[in-house]
Write a structure and sequence with these properties.
2 strands, 57% helix
Length: 157
Amino acid sequence: MARVRKHREVKSTIADAVSYAYSELEELGNEVREVVDNASGTNRENTGRIQTLGETADTLESISDPTIDEELGKVEVTYHEMLPRSRRHGLSRGDRRDNATGALDAVIQVLEEMEEVQSAFKGADQNKDETDYRGLIEDLERMKDEAESAEFPGMYG
């Protein structure tokens, strides 16, 4: 019988959730780059797995940390994180990537809701300063898309 995947709810601020996602993706990029570098000069260097991991490292290393307005960064967000199946084994690289993109998804959703509220009240107060949610949403979506394109082939694939 397969073990049920456990999740935990994480309550955070937008700034902390994005920082977590960026740090996790950066760490994954470093890990994968190390695997690729260690294969250099060996008979594994030209395998499909190592070439795919090289592309993955390039993709993850190209992700940049978006700038978040200080006030906007304090807004609360809730997302779910997968937990390891057992105490002996950590999460796979793919699961860690999925946790990071899940945090980004939650932030994007909150920002889109805030953008909708802002546009609904736009006509009520023409002089009110508007926060540019769209630019940050696009940056986060780009970050998420790049992370989701990363492949983590197994040892034999």
